[in-house]
Each structure stands twice: as C-alpha cells, then as structure tokens.
Write a sequence for this structure.
C-alpha cells in the first residue's frame, strides 16, 4: 500500500491511527442488521448446520472408541458451560465498574481430543473429507455403524491420501491428530509463532510438521502449494473453508440445549452477549453464525483481537476485508496470543458476517496475561493467553451508552442479561508451559 493510500485511509477511517499506535480500541459496528437481512450474505442456512450436526452424530460411535475421552459424551465433542462469578467480581474491581449481567464461560478450551475450539471445525472437516472418500469407494454408507472405520482396511484405504493445512497451532493440532488417527498422511505447516509443545505433540502423533520463520500467511500459502502438487492431497483452507465454518456453527444449537438445561432464557428482555477471540475468523465466525441461527436477534456477538494483530477489525471497519493486512499499517503481527497471530482476515468470513457481528475490540498481550492470572486465582481455570481475549467484553458492552441505546437496552434489561466468554484454548497446555504463563501474569 502506498503512503498516499495510507494517508487517504487514515483520513477516511481515523480509528486506524489508534490501531497503528497499538492502542486498545473498541468499535461497535454501525452496519449491523437483523438476522433476516444479514443471512443472505452468509450463503448458508439452518439446513447446512443440521447436515453438519447429523454428520457428527454418524461419526460419534467411531469417536467414542477411537478417543476414549469422548466416551462420557457418547462420541460427541462438546464443552462445559460454567458460571464464573468470582472472576466477575475481579473484573469489576480491576475496572472499577459494575457488571450487571450474569458472567459465564464456554470451555471450548477443554474440548476433548485437541483442547481448543479448533476441535469443532478442524475435526469436522477431516471427518467430512474421510466420509466423502469412503462413500465414493463404496466402503461406507450413511446407514452404517461408523465404528467400522476402526477396522484395518480403512486405515489402509486412507493411507493412500494426504491432508495439508497451514496453522498457528490449534487448528493444526485438531487436523493433525484426527487425520493421523484415521490413517491419512498429514502435513501441518506451522508459522514461527506456533508453540514448540504443539509441534512436538503433533510429531508424537506421527504428523509431518513443517516449520517457517515467517507468519501464518506464509504457512498457509506453502500448505496450499504442497496440495496443488499432489492430486491425492486435500488442503484444508482456514481462510475460505465453508466446511470448517459449519463445524464451528453446530455450537449454536448445542449451547441452546445447555441453556435450556440450566433454565437460562434468551429473548428481548434477556439478551445474550458473546465474546469470541478472533484470528483469521473461521472459528468465531462459524460460532457466531450458529448462535445467530439458534437465538436470532437476541444474541450479540463481539470479536476480540490482540493490539498487534487486529486483522478482522481492520478488514471489516475499512470494508477491504482480505485486501488489507495489519502489516500494511506497519503493525508487526507479533503477539503472545499465538492462535490470534494473523495479519490478514478471512475474506469469506469478513464478508459473510460483517452485518451480523455487533462489534470488535483489541487488548494488549500484557492484559491477556494479567487476565490469565486473575482467572486462575478466581476460578482455578487455566487457559492459554489468546483464550482470555473475550474476558473484558462485558465491561465494553455495558458501559458504552451509545451501543446500549442503539439496542434499546436499559439497566433493568442488563440485569437480566447473560455475558458469555468463549474460552478457546488451553486444556492441553503442558504444566511447565502453564507455569510460565502464570509467572508472566504478575498476579
């Protein structure tokens, strides 16, 4: 981007000056519409989510045996929903502001198999591909008991095929572990900011890990090139995959069931606010889509990003989406929140969801570490830094009068609201690594 263009851009969008100064910012999207108005731009609907849900049910008998940690849930990969009242008190004390609504956490950080939100989309896409191949070969039909996939003939069959993906860490973990279990040859192209323990864990599972000195964008590009050279190699495209997106979207109907079990109401008088850490956008975008389909206009989703990697905020705010990267503004894309270290947002997700996501905010690495320590002290829940990005959300929402007025929400409604922080990773972090995180939290 030329200097002239950058000058024009900052003139048209003054908020970019704060992004370039690495300041924490909050932006509530003025172009949000109702679900009915926004849905046509997504290009997917309730039937697509239902199909994804049915596919996961078909694979459940296989997963329950292949991954014993899923037996209690009968092979369904799902996370707990918990109250975090002591953390709410800690947030109120830190910001010296009250939080009127109920504060809860969705522990995708502790999803089985790979310990992050990517266990939703990544595993779903691998299963979708495996099912397609097995159908085409006449080895499997929808009416079968999918536990037959454990038979040696299936491993031999899948061994003929390979899977490649570019990742900052967690997506690679999910895809690598699942692909290797089925028998695929799998390569995970990982950026410089990916944690060493994630690379080591993948290698333990027999995954080929290819490392790059550059960031996420280069890892994705190299993974794509590898796949193009091999007709039997399937590239999982985190930037543009609708299959990944749908794997995440099933979370909406699952959460609705959990709310019903806990008798939590979501309607006009009881709004739901959800805070999702955002990297390239597939995970939070898919979850937000599923939530919108489950709760309609009564759920309000916000994306949270590091000050050094605000790619989705930048793309949506300027309307340029994947045509602009944080590096174009001189922002270095270097953050301790490795899962969020993305310089260029998904154009597919940005354009699909720009009318359905209420707002975006950024926070510093220091604040993420601080929140990590506060959560451990308050609730004895241990997360990786990127998973704390959603935590300040309730403060931003409840104390922005313009946003509250736009939604027509007053104090009495806020007291009936639910704030849900989506915890995205940390369940598989080694003890030594977690101790280092906690040491940095200075609590």
């Amino acid at each position: 981007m030329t200097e002239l263009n950058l000058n024009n851009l900052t003139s048209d969008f003054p908020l970019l000056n704060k992004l370039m100064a690495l300041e924490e910012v909050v932006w509530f999207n003025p172009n949000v519409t109702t679900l009915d108005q926004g849905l046509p731009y997504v290009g997917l609907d309730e039937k697509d989510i239902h199909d994804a849900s049915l596919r996961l049910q078909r694979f459940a008998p296989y997963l329950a045996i292949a991954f014993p940690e899923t037996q209690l849930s009968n092979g369904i990969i799902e996370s707990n929903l918990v109250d975090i009242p002591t953390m709410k008190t800690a947030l109120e004390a830190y910001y010296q502001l009250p939080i009127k609504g109920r504060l809860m956490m969705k522990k995708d950080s502790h999803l089985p198999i790979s310990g992050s939100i990517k266990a939703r989309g990544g595993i779903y896409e691998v299963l979708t591909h495996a099912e397609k191949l097995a159908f085409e070969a006449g080895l499997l039909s929808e009416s079968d008991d999918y536990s037959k996939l454990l038979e040696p003939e299936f491993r031999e069959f899948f061994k003929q095929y390979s899977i490649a993906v570019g990742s900052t860490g967690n997506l690679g973990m999910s895809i690598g572990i699942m692909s290797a279990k089925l028998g695929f040859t799998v390569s995970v192209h990982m950026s410089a900011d990916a944690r060493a323990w994630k690379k080591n864990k993948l290698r333990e599972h027999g995954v080929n890990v290819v490392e790059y000195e550059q960031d996420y964008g280069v890892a994705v590009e190299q993974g794509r090139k590898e796949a193009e050279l091999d007709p039997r190699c399937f590239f999982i495209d985190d930037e543009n995959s609708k299959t990944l997106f749908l794997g995440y979207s099933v979370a909406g109907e699952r959460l609705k069931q959990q709310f019903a079990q806990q008798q939590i109401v979501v309607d006009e008088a009881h709004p739901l606010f959800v805070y999702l850490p955002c990297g390239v956008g597939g995970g939070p975008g898919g979850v937000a889509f599923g939530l919108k389909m489950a709760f309609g206009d009564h759920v309000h989703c916000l994306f949270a990003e590091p000050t050094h990697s605000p790619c989705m905020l930048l793309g949506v705010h300027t309307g340029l989406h994947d045509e602009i990267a944080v590096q174009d503004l001189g922002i270095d894309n270097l953050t301790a929140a490795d899962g969020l270290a993305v310089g260029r947002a998904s154009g597919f997700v940005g354009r699909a969801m720009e009318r359905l996501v209420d707002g975006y905010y950024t926070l510093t690495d220091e604040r993420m570490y601080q929140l990590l320590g506060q959560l451990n002290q308050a609730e004895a829940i241990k997360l990786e830094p990127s998973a704390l990005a959603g935590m300040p959300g309730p403060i931003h929402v409840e104390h922005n009068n313009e946003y509250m007025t736009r939604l027509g929400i007053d104090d009495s409604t806020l007291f009936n609201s639910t704030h849900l922080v989506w915890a995205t990773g940390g369940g598989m972090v080694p003890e030594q690594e977690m101790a280092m995180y906690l040491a940095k939290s200075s609590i």
The chain has a mean pLDDT of 95. Residues 46-66 form the longest helix (21 residues). The radius of gyration is 21 Å. Residues 188 and 201 are 12 Å apart (CA to CA).
